[in-house]
Amino acid sequence: MSRILVVDDESSIRLLYSHELADEGHEVVTSANAAEAVEKLKKDDFDLILLDIKLKNESGLDLLQRIVKERHNLPVILCTAYSCYKDDFSAWLADGYVVKSSDLTELKHEIRRVLEKKGTRNTKKGR
Amino acid sequence: MAIVDNYTLLSSAVRIANAVNLSHTDRLESLTRFLNKALLLRSTTIYLLDAEKRVLSLRITGTTGGGALDCCIPLGAGGAGLCALRRETVFLETGALHSDEVRVGDDGRTFCLPVLYGKGVLGVLSLEVATDSPFIASPPAILKDILVEIAGLVRSMEVTERSDRRIRHLLTLNELSKVLHQELPFSSLLPFVLKVSHEFTDSSCTVLRIFSHDGVESKVFKACARKHRPHLRSLLEIEKECSERILATGTPLLTVDVVADEDLPPSYVCVPLHLDSFTLGAMTFFGKTERNGVRRNFDEEERELFAGMANLIVTSLVGARNHERMTMLAAENDRKLKELSLLYRLSNAMHSTIRINKLIHLNLTALVSGPYPLFERAMLFLVNKRSGVMQGMLGVTAEADNEGHHAPEEDSGDLYTPWEISDEEMERRQGSEFCLMVRGTRLPLDKTLNIPSRAVLDKRLILEDGTARRTDPQGGFTDKFRLSSFASVPLIAKGEAVAVVTVDNPVSGKKITLDDLRFLQLFANQAGMAMENSMLYNRIEDANREFMEIRQRLLHGERLATLGESAASIAHDLKGPLVSIGGLARRLLRKETHGSTEWRYAETIVRESDRLGKMLGDILFFSKKTTICYTDCPLKAIVEESLDVVSGFLEENGIRVKKRFSTSPLQVLGDFQQLKQVCINLFSNAGDAMVHGGTLSISLSSAVLDGRPAASIKVRDTGGGIPEEILPNIFNAFYTTKEGGTGLGLPIVHRIVTNHGGRIQVGNRPGIGAEFRITLPTHP
Question: What is the C-alpha end-to-end distance of chain B, expressed in Å?
Answer without folding.
Answer: 165
